[in-house]
Every structure is written in structure tokens, then in C-alpha cells.
Amino acid sequence: MPLSAYLIVSAILFTVGVVGVLIRRNPLIIFMSIELMLNAVNLSFVAISNSLDSADGQMFVFLVLTVAAAEVVVGLAIIVSIFRTRRNIDVDDMNLLRG
Known about the structure:
Blueprint: H1 3-23, H2 27-51, H3 56-86
Helix pairs in contact: 1-2, 2-3
């Protein structure tokens, strides 16, 4: 398959992730959309790395996956703690947490 096919799929996935972040108000959906955007970037890194016969892009993907895993752990912990205290996890109501 040509490189452009992978880049088009990556751009579509990234666009779906951006739309999910901008439109949805559920924090879980927002986190899934952010993960979708990170995976779209990873797909483009791997595709370009493969076309250049270099392993640099693939090594960078491992770094991005590590950061994404840490982001999910911290984000889900925050969402669970907010849900336990407020029983509502709507993003529009989160501005009430400011002190």
C-alpha cells in the first residue's frame, strides 16, 4: 500500500478525535478521543518510518505510547475521584471546582 493511504487514514482518525474532543461533554469520551488522536499520530510515525527504512519513528511511538498510558491513568483517577464526590462528570460543570 502507498504511504499516502496510511497518511489519509491517519488524518481521518485525527479529525474524528478532534471532533470528539470539541463536541462531546463526557470526560471519558474526551479521553478516548485524545487517545484516538495519539494513535493517529503513531500510525503516521510508523508509516513514514517504514517508508524511510528507519527505526526512529517506531522508537518514538514507544515514547508516545508511554506518555499516553500515563495520561490515561492520571485522567481516569481524576474522573473517578470527581464522580465519587459529585455523582456527575459533566465537563460544563467542572468550572465549579475552582477555588
